[in-house]
Write a structure and sequence with these properties.
The complex is a heterodimer of chains A (259) and B (226). Chain A has 259 residues and is an alpha/beta fold. Helix content of chain A is 43%, strand content 19%. Chain A has two domains: 29-104 and 219-256, Periplasmic binding protein-like II (D-Maltodextrin-Binding Protein, domain 2); 105-215, 3-Layer(aba) Sandwich (D-Maltodextrin-Binding Protein, domain 2). In chain A, strands 2-1-3-10-4 form a five-stranded mixed β-sheet. In chain A, strands 7-6-8-5-9 form a five-stranded mixed β-sheet. Chain A is elongated and about 55 Å long. With 226 residues, chain B is mostly helical. Chain B has ten helices and no strands. Classes of the chains: A alpha/beta (259), B mainly alpha (226). The interface between A and B is large, with 43 and 39 residues.
Chain lengths: 259, 226
Protein backbone atom coordinates (compact mmCIF):
# COMPACT_ATOMS: atom_id res chain seq x y z
CA UNK A 1 0.00 0.00 0.00
CA UNK A 2 2.71 2.43 1.04
CA UNK A 3 4.48 1.54 -2.18
CA UNK A 4 1.50 2.63 -4.27
CA UNK A 5 1.06 5.89 -2.39
CA UNK A 6 4.70 6.67 -2.99
CA UNK A 7 4.44 6.02 -6.72
CA UNK A 8 1.43 8.32 -6.89
CA UNK A 9 3.16 11.02 -4.89
CA UNK A 10 6.11 10.89 -7.23
CA UNK A 11 3.98 10.97 -10.36
CA UNK A 12 1.60 13.77 -9.40
CA UNK A 13 3.89 16.72 -10.02
CA UNK A 14 4.82 15.30 -13.44
CA UNK A 15 1.20 15.02 -14.47
CA UNK A 16 0.40 18.51 -13.23
CA UNK A 17 3.21 20.00 -15.27
CA UNK A 18 2.86 18.05 -18.47
CA UNK A 19 -0.09 20.08 -19.72
CA UNK A 20 1.37 23.46 -18.74
CA UNK A 21 3.69 25.72 -20.72
CA UNK A 22 3.09 25.12 -24.38
CA UNK A 23 4.18 27.87 -26.74
CA UNK A 24 1.55 29.96 -28.45
CA UNK A 25 1.28 29.27 -32.15
CA UNK A 26 1.46 32.76 -33.66
CA UNK A 27 4.70 33.87 -32.00
CA UNK A 28 7.44 33.44 -34.62
CA UNK A 29 10.87 32.10 -33.68
CA UNK A 30 13.58 34.46 -34.85
CA UNK A 31 17.28 33.70 -35.09
CA UNK A 32 19.57 36.66 -34.49
CA UNK A 33 23.30 37.20 -34.33
CA UNK A 34 24.32 37.78 -30.73
CA UNK A 35 25.97 41.07 -31.70
CA UNK A 36 22.57 42.75 -31.98
CA UNK A 37 21.18 41.33 -28.73
CA UNK A 38 20.73 44.58 -26.82
CA UNK A 39 19.49 46.60 -29.79
CA UNK A 40 17.07 43.92 -30.95
CA UNK A 41 15.66 43.37 -27.46
CA UNK A 42 14.79 47.09 -27.38
CA UNK A 43 13.29 47.04 -30.86
CA UNK A 44 11.26 43.91 -30.15
CA UNK A 45 9.85 45.54 -27.02
CA UNK A 46 8.75 48.60 -29.03
CA UNK A 47 7.31 46.35 -31.74
CA UNK A 48 5.22 44.47 -29.18
CA UNK A 49 4.01 47.72 -27.62
CA UNK A 50 2.96 49.13 -30.97
CA UNK A 51 1.41 46.07 -32.59
CA UNK A 52 0.51 43.79 -29.69
CA UNK A 53 2.38 40.99 -31.44
CA UNK A 54 5.18 39.03 -29.83
CA UNK A 55 8.34 37.44 -31.20
CA UNK A 56 10.68 34.82 -29.73
CA UNK A 57 14.30 35.67 -30.39
CA UNK A 58 17.16 33.17 -30.12
CA UNK A 59 20.66 34.65 -30.09
CA UNK A 60 23.74 32.80 -31.29
CA UNK A 61 26.48 32.76 -33.89
CA UNK A 62 25.40 33.28 -37.48
CA UNK A 63 27.25 30.21 -38.75
CA UNK A 64 25.45 27.93 -36.30
CA UNK A 65 22.09 29.35 -37.30
CA UNK A 66 22.79 28.63 -40.97
CA UNK A 67 23.52 25.01 -40.05
CA UNK A 68 20.36 24.80 -37.97
CA UNK A 69 18.12 26.41 -40.59
CA UNK A 70 19.52 24.10 -43.25
CA UNK A 71 18.59 21.16 -41.03
CA UNK A 72 15.07 22.48 -40.71
CA UNK A 73 15.07 24.82 -37.70
CA UNK A 74 11.68 26.60 -37.57
CA UNK A 75 13.08 30.14 -37.63
CA UNK A 76 10.91 32.52 -39.66
CA UNK A 77 13.39 35.37 -39.78
CA UNK A 78 17.16 35.28 -39.60
CA UNK A 79 19.21 38.35 -38.74
CA UNK A 80 22.79 37.50 -39.65
CA UNK A 81 25.90 39.36 -38.55
CA UNK A 82 27.26 39.04 -42.08
CA UNK A 83 25.54 38.80 -45.42
CA UNK A 84 27.75 35.93 -46.57
CA UNK A 85 25.74 33.61 -44.35
CA UNK A 86 22.47 34.81 -45.86
CA UNK A 87 23.82 34.00 -49.30
CA UNK A 88 24.46 30.41 -48.24
CA UNK A 89 20.81 30.07 -47.27
CA UNK A 90 19.57 31.82 -50.40
CA UNK A 91 21.56 29.43 -52.55
CA UNK A 92 20.08 26.48 -50.66
CA UNK A 93 16.62 27.91 -51.53
CA UNK A 94 15.62 28.28 -47.89
CA UNK A 95 14.63 31.96 -48.08
CA UNK A 96 11.90 34.09 -49.64
CA UNK A 97 14.34 36.49 -51.33
CA UNK A 98 17.80 37.99 -50.87
CA UNK A 99 16.79 39.98 -47.80
CA UNK A 100 18.06 43.44 -46.86
CA UNK A 101 20.99 44.92 -44.95
CA UNK A 102 19.53 46.19 -41.66
CA UNK A 103 22.68 47.59 -40.07
CA UNK A 104 26.43 47.82 -40.55
CA UNK A 105 28.42 46.49 -37.64
CA UNK A 106 31.56 47.97 -36.16
CA UNK A 107 34.37 46.50 -34.09
CA UNK A 108 35.80 47.75 -30.83
CA UNK A 109 38.73 46.72 -28.70
CA UNK A 110 37.64 46.38 -25.10
CA UNK A 111 39.29 45.69 -21.76
CA UNK A 112 38.12 45.31 -18.17
CA UNK A 113 38.57 48.49 -16.13
CA UNK A 114 41.43 46.97 -14.15
CA UNK A 115 43.30 45.65 -17.22
CA UNK A 116 46.90 46.70 -17.94
CA UNK A 117 45.93 47.00 -21.61
CA UNK A 118 45.89 50.58 -22.92
CA UNK A 119 43.23 51.03 -25.55
CA UNK A 120 43.79 52.86 -28.83
CA UNK A 121 42.39 52.57 -32.37
CA UNK A 122 45.60 51.15 -33.86
CA UNK A 123 46.12 48.50 -31.17
CA UNK A 124 49.53 49.93 -30.22
CA UNK A 125 48.71 49.22 -26.58
CA UNK A 126 48.13 45.57 -27.38
CA UNK A 127 51.45 45.40 -29.23
CA UNK A 128 53.29 46.93 -26.30
CA UNK A 129 51.65 44.63 -23.79
CA UNK A 130 52.73 41.63 -25.85
CA UNK A 131 56.25 43.02 -26.27
CA UNK A 132 56.46 43.42 -22.51
CA UNK A 133 55.35 39.80 -22.10
CA UNK A 134 52.39 40.93 -20.02
CA UNK A 135 49.52 39.67 -22.14
CA UNK A 136 47.97 36.52 -20.73
CA UNK A 137 44.70 36.06 -22.59
CA UNK A 138 42.91 37.92 -25.37
CA UNK A 139 39.37 37.13 -26.50
CA UNK A 140 37.80 37.16 -29.95
CA UNK A 141 34.77 35.34 -31.34
CA UNK A 142 35.47 32.10 -33.16
CA UNK A 143 36.52 33.16 -36.70
CA UNK A 144 35.26 29.86 -38.13
CA UNK A 145 31.59 30.64 -37.72
CA UNK A 146 31.22 34.06 -36.09
CA UNK A 147 31.55 37.07 -38.44
CA UNK A 148 32.89 39.36 -35.74
CA UNK A 149 35.60 36.79 -35.03
CA UNK A 150 36.42 36.67 -38.72
CA UNK A 151 36.78 40.47 -38.82
CA UNK A 152 38.86 40.44 -35.62
CA UNK A 153 41.21 38.00 -37.31
CA UNK A 154 41.37 40.34 -40.30
CA UNK A 155 42.28 43.31 -38.09
CA UNK A 156 44.96 41.38 -36.23
CA UNK A 157 46.42 40.12 -39.52
CA UNK A 158 46.47 43.59 -41.04
CA UNK A 159 48.36 44.91 -38.01
CA UNK A 160 50.81 42.02 -38.04
CA UNK A 161 49.57 40.71 -34.71
CA UNK A 162 47.90 37.47 -35.80
CA UNK A 163 50.96 35.21 -35.51
CA UNK A 164 52.37 36.61 -32.25
CA UNK A 165 48.96 36.67 -30.52
CA UNK A 166 48.14 32.99 -31.27
CA UNK A 167 49.21 31.59 -27.87
CA UNK A 168 47.06 34.12 -26.04
CA UNK A 169 43.80 33.87 -27.99
CA UNK A 170 40.62 32.48 -26.46
CA UNK A 171 37.63 32.01 -28.74
CA UNK A 172 34.06 32.80 -27.79
CA UNK A 173 31.44 30.55 -29.34
CA UNK A 174 29.89 33.80 -30.58
CA UNK A 175 30.79 37.47 -30.14
CA UNK A 176 28.65 37.76 -27.03
CA UNK A 177 30.69 35.11 -25.29
CA UNK A 178 33.88 36.77 -26.49
CA UNK A 179 32.62 40.03 -25.00
CA UNK A 180 31.77 38.28 -21.79
CA UNK A 181 35.33 36.86 -21.62
CA UNK A 182 36.68 40.32 -22.39
CA UNK A 183 34.88 42.09 -19.56
CA UNK A 184 34.78 39.44 -16.86
CA UNK A 185 38.48 39.79 -16.12
CA UNK A 186 39.17 36.33 -17.52
CA UNK A 187 41.21 38.01 -20.26
CA UNK A 188 43.08 41.30 -20.46
CA UNK A 189 40.84 42.37 -23.30
CA UNK A 190 39.29 41.39 -26.57
CA UNK A 191 37.89 42.48 -29.90
CA UNK A 192 34.12 42.66 -29.72
CA UNK A 193 31.11 44.16 -31.45
CA UNK A 194 30.77 47.88 -30.73
CA UNK A 195 27.06 47.28 -30.21
CA UNK A 196 27.82 45.11 -27.17
CA UNK A 197 30.50 47.44 -25.81
CA UNK A 198 28.08 50.38 -25.66
CA UNK A 199 25.39 48.37 -23.86
CA UNK A 200 24.85 49.31 -20.21
CA UNK A 201 25.94 46.09 -18.48
CA UNK A 202 29.14 46.16 -20.53
CA UNK A 203 29.94 49.83 -20.01
CA UNK A 204 29.85 49.40 -16.26
CA UNK A 205 32.62 46.81 -16.41
CA UNK A 206 34.88 47.69 -19.29
CA UNK A 207 36.37 50.42 -21.45
CA UNK A 208 36.40 50.32 -25.23
CA UNK A 209 37.73 52.13 -28.28
CA UNK A 210 36.30 51.86 -31.78
CA UNK A 211 38.55 50.11 -34.31
CA UNK A 212 38.68 52.14 -37.56
CA UNK A 213 36.84 50.75 -40.56
CA UNK A 214 40.05 50.79 -42.66
CA UNK A 215 41.30 47.63 -40.93
CA UNK A 216 38.46 45.30 -41.99
CA UNK A 217 35.84 44.68 -44.65
CA UNK A 218 32.47 46.22 -43.78
CA UNK A 219 30.17 44.05 -41.72
CA UNK A 220 26.98 44.34 -43.70
CA UNK A 221 24.45 42.69 -41.43
CA UNK A 222 21.73 41.26 -43.61
CA UNK A 223 18.41 39.72 -42.62
CA UNK A 224 16.10 37.47 -44.54
CA UNK A 225 12.70 35.83 -44.19
CA UNK A 226 12.74 32.06 -44.48
CA UNK A 227 10.21 29.94 -46.33
CA UNK A 228 8.41 29.40 -43.01
CA UNK A 229 7.75 33.13 -42.43
CA UNK A 230 4.24 34.02 -41.26
CA UNK A 231 2.46 37.33 -40.90
CA UNK A 232 4.05 38.50 -37.64
CA UNK A 233 7.55 37.69 -38.90
CA UNK A 234 6.88 39.69 -42.06
CA UNK A 235 5.55 42.65 -40.06
CA UNK A 236 8.61 42.55 -37.83
CA UNK A 237 10.86 42.42 -40.90
CA UNK A 238 9.26 45.63 -42.18
CA UNK A 239 9.39 47.20 -38.73
CA UNK A 240 13.14 46.57 -38.51
CA UNK A 241 13.60 48.80 -41.56
CA UNK A 242 11.52 51.63 -40.11
CA UNK A 243 13.07 54.94 -39.04
CA UNK A 244 12.39 54.06 -35.40
CA UNK A 245 14.15 50.71 -35.44
CA UNK A 246 17.03 52.14 -37.46
CA UNK A 247 17.40 54.83 -34.79
CA UNK A 248 17.79 52.17 -32.10
CA UNK A 249 20.46 50.38 -34.15
CA UNK A 250 22.29 53.72 -34.54
CA UNK A 251 22.16 54.27 -30.79
CA UNK A 252 23.93 50.94 -30.31
CA UNK A 253 26.84 51.94 -32.51
CA UNK A 254 25.72 50.48 -35.84
CA UNK A 255 26.22 52.52 -38.99
CA UNK A 256 23.20 53.08 -41.18
CA UNK A 257 22.45 50.45 -43.77
CA UNK A 258 22.54 51.60 -47.39
CA UNK A 259 20.46 49.31 -49.49
CA UNK B 1 14.74 34.30 -13.49
CA UNK B 2 13.44 32.55 -16.57
CA UNK B 3 10.41 30.64 -15.28
CA UNK B 4 9.39 29.53 -18.75
CA UNK B 5 12.75 27.82 -19.22
CA UNK B 6 12.63 26.21 -15.78
CA UNK B 7 9.12 24.90 -16.42
CA UNK B 8 10.18 23.58 -19.81
CA UNK B 9 13.14 21.79 -18.25
CA UNK B 10 10.94 20.21 -15.58
CA UNK B 11 8.48 19.14 -18.25
CA UNK B 12 11.28 17.63 -20.33
CA UNK B 13 12.68 15.80 -17.30
CA UNK B 14 9.26 14.44 -16.33
CA UNK B 15 8.37 13.21 -19.79
CA UNK B 16 11.77 11.58 -20.17
CA UNK B 17 11.48 9.79 -16.84
CA UNK B 18 7.90 8.65 -17.55
CA UNK B 19 8.89 7.11 -20.89
CA UNK B 20 12.34 5.85 -20.02
CA UNK B 21 11.85 4.22 -16.61
CA UNK B 22 9.32 1.54 -17.64
CA UNK B 23 11.56 0.62 -20.58
CA UNK B 24 14.58 0.59 -18.28
CA UNK B 25 12.81 -1.75 -15.84
CA UNK B 26 12.21 -4.26 -18.65
CA UNK B 27 15.71 -3.88 -20.06
CA UNK B 28 17.38 -3.90 -16.65
CA UNK B 29 15.54 -7.07 -15.62
CA UNK B 30 16.39 -8.75 -18.91
CA UNK B 31 20.08 -7.90 -18.59
CA UNK B 32 20.15 -9.02 -14.97
CA UNK B 33 18.60 -12.48 -15.49
CA UNK B 34 19.41 -13.51 -19.04
CA UNK B 35 22.71 -14.73 -20.30
CA UNK B 36 23.25 -14.76 -24.01
CA UNK B 37 26.17 -14.56 -26.42
CA UNK B 38 27.30 -10.99 -26.97
CA UNK B 39 25.79 -9.78 -23.71
CA UNK B 40 28.84 -7.70 -22.84
CA UNK B 41 28.51 -5.95 -26.22
CA UNK B 42 24.91 -5.07 -25.47
CA UNK B 43 25.93 -3.82 -22.04
CA UNK B 44 28.70 -1.77 -23.60
CA UNK B 45 26.22 -0.27 -26.04
CA UNK B 46 23.96 0.70 -23.16
CA UNK B 47 26.87 2.49 -21.49
CA UNK B 48 28.05 4.36 -24.59
CA UNK B 49 26.14 7.61 -23.92
CA UNK B 50 27.99 7.83 -20.61
CA UNK B 51 31.37 8.27 -22.25
CA UNK B 52 30.28 10.03 -25.43
CA UNK B 53 30.38 13.83 -25.33
CA UNK B 54 26.82 15.19 -25.55
CA UNK B 55 27.84 17.23 -28.57
CA UNK B 56 28.53 14.00 -30.44
CA UNK B 57 25.03 12.75 -29.71
CA UNK B 58 23.69 16.20 -30.61
CA UNK B 59 25.54 16.10 -33.90
CA UNK B 60 24.23 12.66 -34.86
CA UNK B 61 20.69 13.66 -33.96
CA UNK B 62 20.93 16.95 -35.84
CA UNK B 63 22.27 15.31 -38.96
CA UNK B 64 20.36 12.03 -38.61
CA UNK B 65 16.96 13.50 -37.79
CA UNK B 66 17.24 16.87 -39.55
CA UNK B 67 15.39 17.66 -42.75
CA UNK B 68 18.41 16.75 -44.87
CA UNK B 69 18.25 13.07 -43.85
CA UNK B 70 15.77 10.53 -45.17
CA UNK B 71 14.85 9.44 -41.64
CA UNK B 72 14.19 13.03 -40.66
CA UNK B 73 11.99 13.61 -43.71
CA UNK B 74 10.07 10.40 -43.11
CA UNK B 75 9.42 11.28 -39.46
CA UNK B 76 8.40 14.76 -40.49
CA UNK B 77 5.78 13.35 -42.86
CA UNK B 78 4.59 10.97 -40.20
CA UNK B 79 4.39 13.40 -37.30
CA UNK B 80 3.57 16.58 -39.17
CA UNK B 81 6.54 18.34 -37.64
CA UNK B 82 10.29 17.96 -37.30
CA UNK B 83 11.98 16.26 -34.39
CA UNK B 84 14.98 18.56 -34.29
CA UNK B 85 14.32 22.06 -32.92
CA UNK B 86 11.14 20.71 -31.39
CA UNK B 87 10.27 19.60 -27.87
CA UNK B 88 9.71 16.02 -29.00
CA UNK B 89 13.25 15.96 -30.39
CA UNK B 90 14.60 16.97 -27.01
CA UNK B 91 12.64 14.09 -25.48
CA UNK B 92 14.23 11.63 -27.92
CA UNK B 93 17.66 13.06 -27.19
CA UNK B 94 17.16 13.00 -23.43
CA UNK B 95 16.03 9.38 -23.55
CA UNK B 96 19.11 8.36 -25.55
CA UNK B 97 21.51 10.27 -23.33
CA UNK B 98 19.99 8.87 -20.14
CA UNK B 99 19.84 5.19 -21.04
CA UNK B 100 22.84 4.27 -18.87
CA UNK B 101 21.58 6.33 -15.92
CA UNK B 102 18.24 4.54 -16.10
CA UNK B 103 19.31 0.97 -16.80
CA UNK B 104 22.40 0.67 -14.60
CA UNK B 105 20.87 1.14 -11.12
CA UNK B 106 17.82 -0.92 -12.04
CA UNK B 107 19.90 -3.78 -13.43
CA UNK B 108 22.04 -3.84 -10.27
CA UNK B 109 18.91 -3.88 -8.14
CA UNK B 110 17.46 -6.84 -10.05
CA UNK B 111 20.76 -8.67 -9.76
CA UNK B 112 20.59 -8.26 -5.99
CA UNK B 113 17.20 -10.01 -5.72
CA UNK B 114 17.97 -13.43 -4.12
CA UNK B 115 17.34 -16.33 -6.46
CA UNK B 116 15.48 -18.33 -3.79
CA UNK B 117 12.88 -15.59 -3.52
CA UNK B 118 12.18 -15.75 -7.24
CA UNK B 119 12.20 -19.53 -7.20
CA UNK B 120 9.75 -19.56 -4.32
CA UNK B 121 7.44 -17.21 -6.18
CA UNK B 122 7.61 -19.39 -9.29
CA UNK B 123 6.94 -22.54 -7.22
CA UNK B 124 3.81 -20.91 -5.81
CA UNK B 125 2.53 -20.72 -9.36
CA UNK B 126 2.60 -16.97 -9.68
CA UNK B 127 2.57 -15.64 -13.21
CA UNK B 128 5.63 -13.81 -14.45
CA UNK B 129 3.82 -10.50 -14.46
CA UNK B 130 2.58 -11.09 -10.94
CA UNK B 131 6.10 -11.94 -9.78
CA UNK B 132 7.33 -8.71 -11.33
CA UNK B 133 4.71 -6.52 -9.68
CA UNK B 134 4.23 -8.29 -6.33
CA UNK B 135 7.74 -9.55 -5.57
CA UNK B 136 10.44 -8.03 -7.70
CA UNK B 137 9.35 -4.41 -8.10
CA UNK B 138 8.91 -3.76 -4.38
CA UNK B 139 12.38 -5.18 -3.87
CA UNK B 140 14.14 -3.26 -6.65
CA UNK B 141 12.27 -0.07 -5.86
CA UNK B 142 15.31 1.76 -4.41
CA UNK B 143 17.15 1.10 -7.67
CA UNK B 144 14.22 2.40 -9.70
CA UNK B 145 14.05 5.48 -7.50
CA UNK B 146 17.76 6.12 -7.97
CA UNK B 147 17.34 5.77 -11.72
CA UNK B 148 14.42 8.20 -11.72
CA UNK B 149 16.29 10.82 -9.73
CA UNK B 150 19.48 10.43 -11.77
CA UNK B 151 17.59 10.82 -15.04
CA UNK B 152 15.46 13.68 -13.82
CA UNK B 153 18.40 15.72 -12.56
CA UNK B 154 20.55 14.80 -15.50
CA UNK B 155 17.96 16.05 -18.02
CA UNK B 156 17.58 19.23 -15.99
CA UNK B 157 21.27 19.88 -16.44
CA UNK B 158 21.61 18.69 -20.03
CA UNK B 159 23.34 21.28 -22.16
CA UNK B 160 25.38 20.09 -25.13
CA UNK B 161 22.71 18.06 -26.87
CA UNK B 162 20.06 20.74 -26.39
CA UNK B 163 22.37 23.44 -27.68
CA UNK B 164 23.22 21.43 -30.80
CA UNK B 165 19.79 20.24 -31.86
CA UNK B 166 17.40 22.42 -29.89
CA UNK B 167 17.95 25.79 -31.51
CA UNK B 168 17.38 27.74 -28.28
CA UNK B 169 13.75 28.61 -29.01
CA UNK B 170 11.87 30.13 -26.07
CA UNK B 171 9.03 27.96 -24.76
CA UNK B 172 9.99 25.11 -27.07
CA UNK B 173 13.64 24.15 -26.69
CA UNK B 174 15.16 26.83 -24.47
CA UNK B 175 15.84 24.86 -21.30
CA UNK B 176 17.08 26.24 -18.01
CA UNK B 177 20.71 25.31 -18.71
CA UNK B 178 20.59 27.19 -22.03
CA UNK B 179 18.87 30.12 -20.38
CA UNK B 180 21.67 30.36 -17.81
CA UNK B 181 24.22 30.29 -20.62
CA UNK B 182 22.28 33.04 -22.41
CA UNK B 183 22.05 35.27 -19.35
CA UNK B 184 25.78 35.02 -18.75
CA UNK B 185 26.40 36.08 -22.35
CA UNK B 186 24.05 39.02 -21.90
CA UNK B 187 26.03 40.00 -18.78
CA UNK B 188 22.88 39.37 -16.76
CA UNK B 189 24.76 37.77 -13.90
CA UNK B 190 21.94 38.40 -11.42
CA UNK B 191 19.54 36.27 -13.40
CA UNK B 192 22.14 33.58 -14.11
CA UNK B 193 23.01 33.49 -10.42
CA UNK B 194 19.38 33.12 -9.35
CA UNK B 195 18.68 30.30 -11.77
CA UNK B 196 21.87 28.49 -10.84
CA UNK B 197 20.96 28.77 -7.18
CA UNK B 198 17.49 27.33 -7.82
CA UNK B 199 19.04 24.37 -9.66
CA UNK B 200 21.61 23.84 -6.92
CA UNK B 201 19.01 23.87 -4.14
CA UNK B 202 16.77 21.58 -6.18
CA UNK B 203 19.60 19.10 -6.73
CA UNK B 204 20.51 18.98 -3.04
CA UNK B 205 16.88 18.60 -1.93
CA UNK B 206 16.11 15.84 -4.41
CA UNK B 207 19.24 13.91 -3.55
CA UNK B 208 18.58 14.19 0.19
CA UNK B 209 14.95 13.10 -0.26
CA UNK B 210 15.85 10.08 -2.36
CA UNK B 211 18.55 8.93 -0.02
CA UNK B 212 16.20 8.99 2.92
CA UNK B 213 13.31 7.51 0.91
CA UNK B 214 15.33 4.62 -0.45
CA UNK B 215 16.71 3.94 3.00
CA UNK B 216 13.18 3.69 4.38
CA UNK B 217 11.94 1.55 1.51
CA UNK B 218 14.99 -0.69 1.79
CA UNK B 219 14.39 -1.09 5.54
CA UNK B 220 10.76 -1.94 4.94
CA UNK B 221 11.74 -4.77 2.61
CA UNK B 222 14.23 -6.26 5.07
CA UNK B 223 11.65 -6.15 7.85
CA UNK B 224 9.02 -7.88 5.69
CA UNK B 225 11.42 -10.59 4.62
CA UNK B 226 12.16 -11.53 8.13
Amino acid sequence: MKFRVMVLALLLPFLAISNGASAAQDVPAIAAASSIKFALDDIAKQFTQETGRKVRISYGSSGNFVAQIRHGAPFELFLSADERYIKQLTMAKQTLDDGVVYAVGQLAIAAPKSSPLTLDPDLEGLKQLMAANQLKRFAIANPDHAPYGERAEEVLKKLGLWQPIQPYLVFGENVSQAAQFAVSGATQGGIVALSLAVAKPFEARANYVVIPQKYYTPLDQRMVLTLKAGETAKLFYTYLQSEQAQGVFANYGFSRAMN
Amino acid sequence: MDWEALLLSIKLSSVTVLILIPLAILAGRFLAYRHFPGKSWVEALVMVPLVLPPTVIGYYLLVGLGSESWLGRMLEQLLGHQLVFHFSGLVVASILVNIPFAIQPIQRAFEAVPEDVRDAAACCGMSRLKVLFKIELPMVWPGVLTAMVLCFSHVLGEFGVVLMMGGNIAGETKTIAISIYDSVQAFDFASAGNMSLVLLLFAITVLALTTSLSRRVGGQYVAKRR
